[in-house]
């Protein structure tokens, strides 16, 4: 939450800190001249237009593959934490012991989020390896936790689970940049919500149904661990997805070229506006 607050405070254009600000466009002036409802509808319309424009990513096999992997990971982690208290209660553990396991996973996650980036930078490990490893580690921790009959085993597995989740969330966005490039990060995150929602609606009730049919939390948790192994295994077909994109007119490259052209045009426009403003400033003020 502290990181989010810092990000929110500095999330604004750099031009706000300069003495020379670019002049507002006609569209911006018209929008500011309207009422509150008009501004809200205009903002919502721009959001829908941007979201619709990002749907072309469904043509990229790499984008689809990465979204499926990340969505399965999010679904499995959240469902596992939801089921832990009930699974421990069914095995005869007390509420205090369940709370202790949740505290262990939280502390392990916190430590990992601080140490993991330093280790990755130090040893130059790819984030693809980090995500794949975190999925495999968490899958193993879930299975051992589900079938372990000792509190200390469960505490150890929750600590390992926290490490895996910390690794996963640290590399969550960076693996997109590593595979597709920085320019595609925002479009990817915009459609990632569709994948996450679909995955949660598909697998969440399925895990609960398996629990109801079998009457066993270890069985349902093992199935949940299987989805994590599946997500880790999907990384091995990334080269095939890359070859498919390159052989079928790679849309990501075209997007990057268009974004570069837009950025260059924007920079040229800002430079022209700054020159005009400088010409309007009296000579004595410049001195």
Q: What can you see in these coordinates?
A:
It is a single chain. The chain has helices at about 1-10, 25-35, 35-55, 60-90, 95-125, 125-145, 150-170, 175-180, 185-215, 215-235, 240-245, 250-280, 285. It has about 290 residues and is mainly alpha-helical. The radius of gyration is 24 Å and the shape is elongated.
List keywords for this structure.
287 residues, mainly alpha, 13 helices
Q: What structural class do the secondary elements suggest?
A: mainly alpha
Euclidean distance between termini CA atoms: 46 Å
Biggest sheet character: none
Mean pLDDT reading: 83
The portion of residues assigned to helices is over 70%
Radius of gyration from CA coordinates: 24 Å
Low-confidence stretches: none
Strand fraction equals: under 5%
DSSP strand tally: 0
Describe the global form.
Answer: elongated
H/E topology pattern: HHHHHHHHHHHHH
Tally of alpha and pi helices = 13
In short:
This protein has 13 helices and no strands. It is mainly alpha-helical.
Produce the secondary structure layout.
Layout: H1 2-9, H2 26-33, H3 36-53, H4 61-90, H5 95-123, H6 127-147, H7 151-170, H8 174-180, H9 185-214, H10 217-234, H11 238-247, H12 251-280, H13 283-286
